[in-house]
């Protein structure tokens, strides 16, 4: 065959590429040409590019080894612009497109001359497993510094530093049968199920569906196998009940047949999604598939042999050679030596020979092989060396020769004199490992099969492996297995399908293979030239042997010590070889050593696909109150409380300068204490409770009494878990005899709702009561301060007389001409009215209040001021002053505990446990810093004796701390061991900066201890 | 991600709609004050962690808000059944293949009588 002029390794004909369409691309700054239908790897090989990368640890030059997802070396960085950067793309999984720009992932200053390779050459033997840990272990504080340089030296690609111009989608899919892999077994399974009428999804990770059929030497119905694949794909594409997903990798198998598929929709067209009719499609889609049953037709990966120098560019797995020749019309060299342990790999030599290039020799580890392919090779006069293997590849940047000798694989010895064969390519095959990754994700441990010399998947219910994926490598059997597995899967779903008529396979007789993983060398493994097991992580046979000598016997430990099977590779090529070597060193069998666990994802998934549309403004839902727009227009700074956006403070601009947080809060606090302020409290949780047993239920769920709360009255209540620890608090009002309105903390609303339902549904189903969340139905506006009554009186028909509408009353009436419930509840310690109106009336009422409020100095305040005001009064915030280890008694709130209630309310029994009765429990107290200018840090630890030797016994911590403009000093709430009996004592707070603050333990109420201001 | 059949909605829904609430069938002592500290501590803090069949309390939190129970194999994660509050599991550690039909029927009669008694207790 002739050559294409500017692509030295491109054949003049053959392959599934379009020679009429030439595409230009750039690799490491140099321009090359390939064809439509190429993958980047085939285009690089066509152009004779040997070195595609530098290795991870030793910076050794590396070339392309495989042709699919299992490629360990050819990791490239894609992208011609910063925003388009994509790291760690396998050149074997990237379709070529016009203008593709790629760079080697590793290599500085470039892959041809690499500074780090000095480490590999000189330091190589000094870099055993654990090298970094052993060398850079001390001092510990320097590790962060070392790590920075080690990562720079080793690195695996880099993320873009600019915003991704593309978009990504998530799709939820449902089907009867999901078939993963569109090779012979997968196509047969999908066709069977599709004709049976089932809803089928068929996905395949490659550019084209067909799997091994695309480069098979076998005939189906006397035609090339690829023809049959094309026909089946065409039929499936025409069926309404089938979804075909090409370029789609099944990356994770999760519980209950939930499988995540990553579909790359535009990555074969350009580095960013091209514009089509003014519309840019999503670059990729994550299909979240919930399948009834799943057929895993994931095929097998060929195992390379482990021999010295097996990482020099020009060493490939045998099947990849066939794939490049037959699918892409590319021969990756001139002179081939093939080292095998089985018949199937002979295809590489036959394909190479047919491509018109020289097969120097086939080196077969077996004696007297006799399958059909062996006979064909013999008939062509190809030299076959039996009972032998390639011991060592010669060459540094490209293979220059192969040292071959007879071996005794069982005894792990070289038995003959080595002969050096001149060649530029060594292909090897040690057998075929079923791709068990997805089955392994389900938690099922694979089992070793001696007949096929590989692990086969164990399967959970509803998962069926078919064909090569369970070691059934024969084409005819694989096709039939696909049909059988589809029928089994459908019948498990109560569906049925007839077996389809399969094409006739012209059988190729293959003899059995022999077990060969690591090839022996004349020198012992630790002294022989490096034999690589895991090329991506630079793990050698010597490293594994050393690990076993150092006492690592579990394969999981060997993996972690040597890094075998780490990284983006997940051990696709190397793991079985590594286990075999560990087994040999430990004197065990492979099944005794076992396999490591494969985890999702099968191949790396771009973050964009994982995130989908859940980014930027759609990252997390935001909840706004009905008054949000007013807050925005009035310059509020916002605080996030759960998903709510609450006004934090309302800075004013004074003399052209915007107030700071402290300045605004001081102004807002004084406005409330001296005039009147208003807070948007709509986010408070509100639960409507109705039913004849509503009152009984409240009595059981709250610590205090509810039996006598009359309609028109409200009460503060504490809610504990059954361990006696406070979980939430709030007021509940009696709306009518069988009707209550409970309020909860903003953050606790959903949890409290679920809590009420839990007790009602599981413990007290006999109580007739219902709960409805009405948080969003009502807007709540707190008007508070000495002028609150005068202001509200202007716009309501409710009698606000202090004796007619007393503290902890609620009244129904009109406010600003709309129906309202007004609660006289105070969280500030001042006269306060909480006005509740239907949410869509809120803006009208709020604005009406402001229209009337100016003359009273009505001031909007936010959550920060609310916190200062409530803390000055010693009002707790559940979740801030409590943390799930604080009882009502620890808070000094015995007044809100009904010890003598008839029922055993939730939390009661636990309050008499020995632990909750300890005198030295941490109890809530007030702290007054000795220096009034000091505002203690929230969370600061408290000690009794600052001169105590370190470690000092820590006796509590600050839970809330603010500057009080009313007091003119800092103040805090804190929990302190036995604090309630330590009033007046001094405690100390040693800070990280070396200072130690002193503070006096005081009561928790700092302002208006008698509570007179709220009762005016 | 689990695929869970809600016995109230009578549909399979995604796990995202549910919250797990721990071991099922933890009976709160009828008279807590009569419990010793140890008995109360057992009720509060001690839970089983079986390998195999486990009964769990779940809530269809963003669906019907109903609590219900799941019998799940903690090794395979297979959900063997879901059942309503007040019902008893058919699959248990003693009956991994399911209880005989007559046992199930007898339990149902007993449970219904118990519920009638509880409701009369409230009225009284």
Automatic annotation (TrEMBL), chain A:
Domain SoxA A3, first and last residues per copy: 529-610
Q: List the InterPro entries.
A: 2Fe-2S-bd_N (IPR042204), BFD-like_2Fe2S-bd_dom_sf (IPR041854), FAD/NAD-bd_sf (IPR036188), FAD/NAD-binding_dom (IPR023753), GcvT/YgfZ/DmdA (IPR028896), GcvT/YgfZ_C (IPR029043), GcvT_C (IPR013977), GCVT_N (IPR006222)
Keywords, A to Z, come to: Aminotransferase, Oxidoreductase, Transferase
Q: Which superkingdom? A: Bacteria
Q: GCVT N-terminal domain: from which residue to which, for each copy?
A: 627-901
Q: Does the keyword Ribonucleoprotein apply?
A: no
Question: Taking every annotated instance into account, which residue ranges of this chain make up the domain Aminomethyltransferase C-terminal?
Answer: 922-1008
Q: Does the keyword Oxidoreductase apply?
A: yes
Q: The FAD/NAD(P)-binding domain covers which part of the protein?
A: 176-452
Task: State the Pfam families in the record.
Answer: Fer2_4, GCV_T, GCV_T_C, Pyr_redox_2, SO_alpha_A3
Family under the similarity heading: Belongs to the GcvT family.
Protein's name in the database: Sarcosine oxidase subunit alpha family protein
Q: What species is this protein from?
A: Halomonas gemina
From TrEMBL, chain B:
Q: Which InterPro entries match?
A: SoxD, SoxD_sf
- This protein is called Sarcosine oxidase subunit delta
Q: Which organism is it from?
A: Halomonas gemina
């Amino acid at each position: 065959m002739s050559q294409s002029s500017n692509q030295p390794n491109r054949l003049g004909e053959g392959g599934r590429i379009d020679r009429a369409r030439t595409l230009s691309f750039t690799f490491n700054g140099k321009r090359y040409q390939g064809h439509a239908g190429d993958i980047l790897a085939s285009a690089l090989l066509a152009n004779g590019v040997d070195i595609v990368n530098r290795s991870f640890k030793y910076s050794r030059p590396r070339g392309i080894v495989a042709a699919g997802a299992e490629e360990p070396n050819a990791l490239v960085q894609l992208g011609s612009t910063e925003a388009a950067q994509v790291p760690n793309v396998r050149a074997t999984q990237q379709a070529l497109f016009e203008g593709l720009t790629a760079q080697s992932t590793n290599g500085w200053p470039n892959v041809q001359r690499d500074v780090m390779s000095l480490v590999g050459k000189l330091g190589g033997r000094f870099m055993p497993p654990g090298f970094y840990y052993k060398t850079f272990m001390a001092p510990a504080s320097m590790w962060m510094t070392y790590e920075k340089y080690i990562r720079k030296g080793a690195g695996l690609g880099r993320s873009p530093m600019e915003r991704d111009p593309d978009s990504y989608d998530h799709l939820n899919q449902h089907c009867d049968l999901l078939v993963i892999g569109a090779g012979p077994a997968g196509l047969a399974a999908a066709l069977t199920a599709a004709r049976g009428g089932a809803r089928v999804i068929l996905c395949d990770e490659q550019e084209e569906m067909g799997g091994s059929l695309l480069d098979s030497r076998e005939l189906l119905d006397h035609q090339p196998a690829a023809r049959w694949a094309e026909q089946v794909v065409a039929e499936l594409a025409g069926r309404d009940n089938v979804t075909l997903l090409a370029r789609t990798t099944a990356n994770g198998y999760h519980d209950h047949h939930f499988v995540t598929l990553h579909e790359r929709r535009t990555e074969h067209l350009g580095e960013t999604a091209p514009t089509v009719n003014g519309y840019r499609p999503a670059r990729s889609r994550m299909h979240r598939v919930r399948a009834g049953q799943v057929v895993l037709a994931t095929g097998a990966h060929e195992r390379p042999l482990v021999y010295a120098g097996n990482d020099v560019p020009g060493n490939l797995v045998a099947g990849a050679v066939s794939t490049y020749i037959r699918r892409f019309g590319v021969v990756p060299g001139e002179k081939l030596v093939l080292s095998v342990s089985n018949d199937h790999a002979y295809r590489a030599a036959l394909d190479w020979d047919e491509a018109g290039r020289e097969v120097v020799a086939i080196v077969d580890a077996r004696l007297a092989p006799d399958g059909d392919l062996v006979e064909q090779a013999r008939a062509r006069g190809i030299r076959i060396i039996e009972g032998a293997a390639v011991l060592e590849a010669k060459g540094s940047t490209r293979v220059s020769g192969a040292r071959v000798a007879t071996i005794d694989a069982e005894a792990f010895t070289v038995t003959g004199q080595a002969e050096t064969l001149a060649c530029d390519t060594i292909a090897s095959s040690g057998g075929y490992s079923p791709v068990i990754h997805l089955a392994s994700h389900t938690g099922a441990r694979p089992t070793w099969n001696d007949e096929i010399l590989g692990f086969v998947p164990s399967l959970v219910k509803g998962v069926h492996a078919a064909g090569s994926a369970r070691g059934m490598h024969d084409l005819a059997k694989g096709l039939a297995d696909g049909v059988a597995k589809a029928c089994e899967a459908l019948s498990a779903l109560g569906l049925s399908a007839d077996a389809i008529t399969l094409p006739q396979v012209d059988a190729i007789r293959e003899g059995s293979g022999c077990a060969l993983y690591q090839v022996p060398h004349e020198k012992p493994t630790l002294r022989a030239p490096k034999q690589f097991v895991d090329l991506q992580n630079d793990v050698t046979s010597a490293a594994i042997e050393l690990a076993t000598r150092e006492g690592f016997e579990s394969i999981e430990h060997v993996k972690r010590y040597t890094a075998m099977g780490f990284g983006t590779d997940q051990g696709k090529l190397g793991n079985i070889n590594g286990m075999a070597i560990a087994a040999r060193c430990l004197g065990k069998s492979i099944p005794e050593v076992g396999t490591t666990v494969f985890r999702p994802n099968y191949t790396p998934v771009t973050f964009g696909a994982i995130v989908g549309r859940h980014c930027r403004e759609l990252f997390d839902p935001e909840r706004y109150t009905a008054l949000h727009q007013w807050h925005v227009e009035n310059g509020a700074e916002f605080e996030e409380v759960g998903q709510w956006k609450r006004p934090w403070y309302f800075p004013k601009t004074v003399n052209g300068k915007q107030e700071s947080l402290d300045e605004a809060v001081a102004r807002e606090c004084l406005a409330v204490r001296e005039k009147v302020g208003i807070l948007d409290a709509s986010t408070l949780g509100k639960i409507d409770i109705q039913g004849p047993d509503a009152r009984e239920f409240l009595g059981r769920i709250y610590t205090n009494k509810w039996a006598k709360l009359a309609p028109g009255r409200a009460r503060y209540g504490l809610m504990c878990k059954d361990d006696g620890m406070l979980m939430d608090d709030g007021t509940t009002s009696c709306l009518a005899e069988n009707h209550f309105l409970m309020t909860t903390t903003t953050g606790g609303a959903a949890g409290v709702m679920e809590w009420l339902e839990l007790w009602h549904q599981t413990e007290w189903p006999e109580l007739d009561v219902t709960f409805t969340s009405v948080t969003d139905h009502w807007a709540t506006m707190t008007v508070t301060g000495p002028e609150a009554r005068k202001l509200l009186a202007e716009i309501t028909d409710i009698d606000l007389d202090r004796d007619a509408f007393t503290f902890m009353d609620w009244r129904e009436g009109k406010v600003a001409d709309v129906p309202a419930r007004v609660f006289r509840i105070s969280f500030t310690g001042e006269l306060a009215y909480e006005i509740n109106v239907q949410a869509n009336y809120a803006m009208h009422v709020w604005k009406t209040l402001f229209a009337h409020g100016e003359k009273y100095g009505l001031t909007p305040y936010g959550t920060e001021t609310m916190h200062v005001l409530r803390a000055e009064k010693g009002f707790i915030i559940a979740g801030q002053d409590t943390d799930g280890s604080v009882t009502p008694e620890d808070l000094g709130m015995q007044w809100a505990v009904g010890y003598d209630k008839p029922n055993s309310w939730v939390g009661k029994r636990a309050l008499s446990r020995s632990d909750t009765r300890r005198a030295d429990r941490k109890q809530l107290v007030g702290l007054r810093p000795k220096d009034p200018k000091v505002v203690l840090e929230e969370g600061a630890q408290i000690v009794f004796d600052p001169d105590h030797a370190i470690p000092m016994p820590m006796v509590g911590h600050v839970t809330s701390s603010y500057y009080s403009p009313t007091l003119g000093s800092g103040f805090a709430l804190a929990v302190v061991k036995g604090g309630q009996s330590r009033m007046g004592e001094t405690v100390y707070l040693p800070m990280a900066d070396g200072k130690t603050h002193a503070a006096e333990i005081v009561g928790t109420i700092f302002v208006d201890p008698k509570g007179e201001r709220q009762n005016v | 991600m689990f695929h869970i059949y809600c016995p109230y909605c009578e549909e399979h829904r995604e796990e995202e709609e549910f919250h797990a609430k721990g071991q099922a069938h933890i009976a709160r002592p009828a008279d807590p004050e009569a419990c010793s500290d140890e008995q109360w501590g057992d009720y509060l803090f001690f839970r089983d962690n079986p390998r195999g069949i486990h009964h769990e309390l779940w809530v269809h939190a963003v669906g019907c808000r109903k609590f219900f129970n799941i019998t799940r194999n903690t090794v395979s994660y297979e959900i063997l059944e879901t059942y309503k509050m007040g019902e008893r599991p058919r699959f248990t550690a003693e009956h991994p293949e399911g209880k005989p039909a007559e046992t199930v029927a007898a339990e149902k009669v007993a449970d219904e009588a118990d519920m009638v008694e509880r409701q009369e207790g409230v009225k009284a």
